[in-house]
Amino acid sequence: MFLGGYCLSLEPLTRIATGSYGSLARYRTVKRLEKVGDFTIVGASGDLSDFQKISSMLKEMSTSDAAFDDGCNMTPRDIHQYLGRVMYNRRNKFDPLWNELVVAGFRDGKPFLGAVDLIGTMYEDDIVATSFGNYVCLPLMRKAGTNLSKDEAKQVLENCLRVLYYRNTKSSTKIQIATVSADGVEIGEPFEISTYWGYSAFEHTEYHGKRL
Predict the structure, then answer these.
(1) Do residues 180 and 104 lie in contact, with contact meaning Cβ atoms separated by under 8 Å?
(2) Rounded (5°) CA angle 24-29-31
(3) How far is CA 72 from the centre of its chain?
(4) pLDDT tens per residue, range 153-185
(5) In 3D, which of 189, 5, 200, 202 has the Cα closest to residue 113?
(6) Minimal CB count within 10 Å: which of 49, 83, 148, 178?
(7) pTM: predicted TM-score of the whole model, two decimal places
(8) Element (H or E) spanning 111, and its range?
């Protein structure tokens, strides 16, 4: 979170811009950030085809919402609740959608950020992460805090995904960042982050207490 809105970021191979077939990083231009209406962004980690199904459901819902033309549109919290019910319903059928979702939005002067997992568990917070990011990124984001500018928030996300790249053999350096604030929803194009492999811990690997 930054002052006045939220940033979302996903990394290509396992989170956003890459589609993997087993261990093969087959598709490297797949995007996993979806704009829903005028106020909301939905991002997902997990199975790509399941997220495509979720995206299709959200587009159908948005079209139906707009067709009523009654001036009452779904808020980010409404979409978060809807996705929670969808995931919980599929879980009860023993056919879950294998995704973890993040919903971010800005409506009526208030930012919103929530998460939904594959069994329908929902929560709201100022800082959320999915998948491996729960173990690596949450501590880094909590250390940075929420009293940040937009540029500072983006820098924190870049650092988080850089660490994820160091620690995840199936990730890549291409990431995508989206922001949602009073100015609207902005989904940036994927770009490459810089890396540095000169750390001594990377140069000297120890195994069973013996230096290799």
Answers:
(1) yes
(2) 110
(3) 27
(4) 889 999 998 998 888 777 778 888 889 988 889
(5) 5
(6) 49
(7) 0.84
(8) strand 110-116
